[in-house]
Amino acid sequence: MKQIYFVTGTDTDAGKTLVASGLLHKANDMGLRTIGLKPVAAGCEETAEGLRNADALQLQQTASVKLGYDQVNPVALVEPIAPHIAAQRENRRLSADRLVAFCRGALMQPADFVLIEGAGGWRVPLNPSETLARVPQQLQIPVIMVVGMKLGCISHALLTAEAISRDGLTLAGWVANVMDPDMPVLQENIDTIRAALRAPLLGTVPHLDSATAAEAAAHLDLQLLGLSKK
């Protein structure tokens, strides 16, 4: 049965793409068919093939089910700023309905494990009345939260988890992504968040110089999501 998760972060640059790619890589090694989607990406470069976002490309390259770039990242925005502002500056309007429709189209592909990566944190606006949280709400899928381990991460993690619950969704698991290799009392911070959340800790990804999907995968446990090898 296809398992679909929305990947959010406690902040921008929390490590969503690294963790999502690591989870996809882990699932690939388990013999599962995987898909990674980035429905909206702000911060794209012009190429001969069109606008391309580095995070979306990483998800596309890591997933075992090979989709076209436009399926992985249907809304590509040039400037690396809040998506709704980037869209406004391009005279475009974002909507949850449109992003959900794009996702549902890609989800028609046969797969066992699908990750839909958000942009920034949980409450990133799409337009004056909607945030990106409306996408997993409409799809009614559980959430994996990436916690960027740095000063302030405990409050960020608990507030994000609280918002996910308030929006009627399940926090399926969370990942501690170590951003600062010299972060003081790192383990105490992880233990505090772990004690406060009911969702399982899927792994702690250490600070990685090369930060590849394969290296991140070595620190993640998909069995905690109920996945097993084929």
TrEMBL record:
It is found in: Cytoplasm. HAMAP family: BioD. ATP binds at D13, A14, G15, K16, T17, L18, D55, E117, G118, A119, G120, P206, H207, L208. Belongs to the dethiobiotin synthetase family. Mg(2+) binds at T17, D55, E117. Keywords: ATP-binding, Biotin biosynthesis, Cytoplasm, Ligase, Magnesium, Metal-binding, Nucleotide-binding. NCBIfam families: bioD (TIGR00347). It catalyses: (7R,8S)-7,8-diammoniononanoate + CO2 + ATP = (4R,5S)-dethiobiotin + ADP + phosphate + 3 H(+). The active site is at K38. Gene3D superfamilies: P-loop containing nucleotide triphosphate hydrolases (3.40.50.300). Pathway: Cofactor biosynthesis; biotin biosynthesis; biotin from 7,8-diaminononanoate: step 1/2. Coiled coil: none annotated. This is ATP-dependent dethiobiotin synthetase BioD. It is an enzyme of class 6 (ligase). Its EC number is 6.3.3.3. It comes from the Bacteria. The keyword Magnesium applies. InterPro entries: DTB_synth_BioD, P-loop_NTPase. Its cofactor is Mg(2+). Catalyzes a mechanistically unusual reaction, the ATP-dependent insertion of CO2 between the N7 and N8 nitrogen atoms of 7,8-diaminopelargonic acid (DAPA, also called 7,8-diammoniononanoate) to form a ureido ring. Signal peptide: none annotated. SUPFAM superfamilies: P-loop containing nucleoside triphosphate hydrolases (SSF52540).
